[in-house]
Specification:
single chain
């Protein structure tokens, strides 16, 4: 977090005098060096009507404690962080019918300081003030791609026969998966990136959203996920042949001010998955709120791990719940590493890996995809790995539209191949710090949804407290229905409930909790109000499982009792999924192969020099 994430809460109001400055535009790097993001408590700040950027001395209202700090550091400008925000837009409805509270952005501002200001000190001082909910730096982001200039034609990531010196089978088994499904045009993949060339011959007619592109990066990513396939021997094959693409252009260099509105826009446009082949080292509460909203709306976010060959957390990949963090493999199924400072990042938050190329110099060992102006070229990095996962997400959702976001993430994890166990030690859960749950396998993921397996969505209600916090501690709640965003005093309670399967299985099935629809939370701090439920490890049998979640007893900082958040232990609702072979055969509801001939489906797309 680079020492720049703090929380506080509210008190006084007033005015102060500041210097006058020009209102020039800043580059993304200058924003990081000179601007901070602050959410204020209600009443602590008020901008004159119709203004979105103004000198601090011209504000109608500013809390005296805040004014004293920012005046001392020479604040030059106060800006409305999200000038397009509509305060009446407070509720969204998820695809499954749940009401979702949209983040309230009305009290989030940016404050600009002179060059050379120690923003860490500013943030630390402001965070201690009662008028501040939270404050943070402007995050730094970059697109995750390795630079170079070589040129060849081969998509080994989809089907590796040993070309370019690779290992046969070191791929995602795409042709085998296409025996089952090649995708659906009812599925929309959000490409949150540098824009897409919507006129490219392999992408035309598929792209909505922003027009144009700022850099070639987004076009390359889009082609990997969902290039047209079997279109008159033209170009390349996408993982998902028929999915539509939605373009959210973050600019180049990546503009952090565009991240929050882009994520929200992609969700509200109906994207089923958001591909994020970019990131940086700065945790942002503001941007985490956007991805939490995506999760609550039953969306999937695939995020690249980063290209620094480090275990330093990079965001959004390291945000946790609701994120599929994707590392990169080379054409021999080994984690991509080019040199000490270039390679696929690793760490406790990695979920899976996917083909990303062998790095510098670009050649046929890397990932071939679309570039602007009907061009094609090789690129490498975790940027190229993430859209393989996004394409798979689209295939799964198109094949079974009843899947929830947690279902899709778990299926991708379960079906991943534990490649090179002689190099990577996978734990008892099948996870490794470099490879996550393994390299994705599209065919195996789809096979989990087919007979003889049976896929069940169940729920249980009520529960018993099995553990609790030792004391009331400061806890930030953000975008929680019925609770003002801020810091409270809270004690957590762990609640468990036994679940008996109405249809038993031959043996212990795969089972996992689902956050969407669950009204218990995790013990994350800050807590963004995402439903959270897990299956207690070791509790699953062929007939039952034990589920758990957390609730809080909450007081204001001033000592007023708020009550249970989000509900009392006896009122929790726990949603979960079980997947396995049923003890008795019921043909109704089973997913059957969509290509019963069993003949291998191969794309006819061929790139010609």
């Amino acid at each position: 977090m680079n020492g720049r994430i703090f929380t506080g809460i509210a008190a006084f109001i007033g005015l102060a005098a500041f210097v006058q400055v020009s209102f020039g535009q800043l580059s993304p790097q200058e924003k990081y060096e000179r601007e901070i993001i602050v959410e204020f408590m209600s009443g602590a700040i008020r901008m004159p009507a119709g203004e979105i950027r103004i000198s601090p001395n011209k504000l109608d209202t500013l809390a005296p404690s805040v004014a004293e700090v920012i005046e001392r550091y020479g604040a030059e400008l106060v800006l409305v962080a999200f000038p397009g925000y509509d305060p009446a837009d407070t509720i969204a409805i998820s695809p499954t019918g749940e009401l979702v509270k949209k983040p309230d952005l009305s009290r989030i501002y940016k404050i600009r300081f002179p060059e050379g200001t120690d923003l860490d000190k500013v943030i630390k001082e402001l965070s201690a003030l009662p008028d501040v909910v939270y404050d943070e730096c402007t995050p730094r982001y970059e697109y995750y791609i390795e630079p170079n200039d070589e040129y060849f034609n081969l998509q080994w990531g989809l089907h590796n026969t040993g070309q370019a010196g690779g290992t046969p089978g070191a791929d995602i088994d795409a042709p085998e998966a296409w025996d089952i499904t090649t995708g659906s045009s009812s599925i929309k993949l959000g490409i949150v990136d540098a824009g897409i060339d919507e006129n490219h011959v392999d992408l035309s007619g598929k792209v909505s959203g922003d027009a144009g592109y700022s850099d070639e990066h987004g076009t390359h990513v889009a082609g990997i996920a969902a290039a047209k396939t079997n279109n008159n021997n033209e170009g390349i094959a996408g993982v998902n042949w028929h999915a539509l693409l939605h373009d959210e252009n973050l600019g180049y260099p990546l503009d952090p001010d565009k991240v929050y509105p882009a994520v929200i826009s992609a969700v509200d446009a109906g994207c089923h998955v958001l591909n994020n082949s970019w990131g940086g080292p700065d945790y942002s509460i503001t941007h985490r709120r956007a991805f939490a909203y995506a999760y609550k709306m039953d969306r999937v976010a695939a995020c690249a791990m980063g290209n620094d060959n480090t275990s330093t957390p990079m965001y959004p990949a390291a945000y946790g719940q609701g994120i599929i963090a994707v590392g990169a493999t080379m054409n021999n199924d080994v984690r991509w590493v080019t040199r000490s400072t270039y390679g696929s990042n690793y760490g406790a938050w990695i979920d899976v890996v996917a083909p990303g190329g062998n790095g510098y110099p670009w050649d046929s060992r890397d990932i071939f995809s679309t570039l602007p102006n009907d061009d094609y070229y090789y690129r490498s990095g975790t940027s190229m790995a993430a859209p393989h996962v996004s394409g798979l997400v689209g295939l799964l959702k198109g094949y079974n539209t009843g899947l929830y976001n947690d279902d899709i993430e778990q299926i991708i994890r379960i079906s991943a191949e534990k490649v090179h166990p002689e190099l990577y030690t996978y734990d008892e859960n099948g996870w490794n710090i470099e490879m996550g749950y393994g390299r994705i396998n599209v065919r195996k993921a789809l096979d989990l949804l087919r007979s003889p397996n049976q896929f069940k969505h169940w729920e249980v209600n009520g529960g018993s407290v099995v553990d609790q916090g030792s004391s009331y501690e400061k806890q930030a709640f953000i975008d929680v229905p019925g609770l003002a965003t801020g810091v409270y005093l809270a004690k957590w309670y762990r609640v468990q409930k036994g679940a008996t399967f109405s249809n038993p299985f031959v043996s212990a099935p795969y089972a996992w909790g689902r956050g969407v629809g669950t009204n218990g939370f995790s013990i994350a701090n800050p807590n963004y109000g995402m439903g959270w439920c897990r299956v207690v490890p070791g509790s699953v049998t062929s007939t039952s499982a034990t589920l758990e979640t957390y609730v809080y007893d909450v007081y204001t900082i001033g000592g007023s009792h708020v009550g249970w958040v989000p509900c009392s232990p006896g009122n929790v609702q726990l949603k979960y999924t079980a997947l396995g072979k049923p003890a008795s055969v019921h043909l109704s509801g089973w997913m059957e192969c969509l290509n019963p001939s069993k003949s291998e489906v191969e794309p006819m797309d061929v790139y010609h020099f």
